[in-house]
Amino acid sequence: QVQFVESGGGLVQSGGSLRLSCAASGFAFETYIMSWYRQAPGKERELVASITSVGDSTNYQDSVQGRFTISRDNAKNTLYLQMNNLKAEDTGIYYCKAWPLEYWGQGTQVTVSS
Q1: Beta bridge partners of 25
Q2: How far apart are CA 26 and CA 62, in angstroms?
Q3: What is the pLDDT of residues 18-56, one digit of tens each?
Q4: How many CA atoms lie within 13 A of 14 on its CB side?
Q5: In angstroms, rounded to a whole number, what is the distance separating the alpha carbons of residues 73 and 1?
Q6: CB 88 within 8 A of CB 15
Q7: Among 67, 78, 85, which Cα is nearest to 20's?
Q8: Helix (H) or strand (E) holding 23
Q9: What angle do CA 104, 84, 74 make, to 5 degrees?
Q10: DSSP of 67-96
């Protein structure tokens, strides 16, 4: 079955960095567009960044452009999100997802203290 295991979250001060990982299994990872989503307390889940199946094109939410970098390693079935210059508003649970599959992992918590 399709599974996502997100990791790498934690508590960091404003301006700090984290690198998230998402280990995927149960489907042909290398053929799917992959995305990172996040859900802040009391808010709806939102799209943060996406990457094509071969990693040749990426897209970012305006608020993270220039600070976050999405990447993937198809040989390892793993998706990454490098987050730099973190801000308090980046706090939330981060999830990875394959488009158009409707499966979610447990997410990883990111907390940025100001």
Answers
A1: 3
A2: 32
A3: 999 999 999 999 999 999 999 999 999 999 999 999 999
A4: 5
A5: 20
A6: no
A7: 78
A8: strand 18-25
A9: 45
A10: TEEEEEETTTTEEEEEE-S--GGG-EEEEE
* Sole residue written with tokens 């700090």: 16
Q: What is the residue type of 87?
A: K
Say which residues have a Cβ less than 8 Å from residue 3's Cβ, sequence separation at least 6. 24, 25, 26, 103, 105
Q: How far is CA 63 from CA 53, 57, 68, 87, 105, in A?
A: 24, 18, 9, 10, 24
Asked whether the predicted pLDDT for residue 97 surpasses 90, the reply is yes
Q: Which of 87, 83, 94, 90 lies closest to 4, judged by CA?
A: 94
Place of tokens 């305006």: 62
Of 2, 30, 56, 40, nearest in space to 48 by CA: 40
Count of C-beta atoms within a 10 Å radius of residue 36: 25
- What is the mean predicted confidence (pLDDT) over 83-107? 97
Terminal CA-CA length for the chain: 40
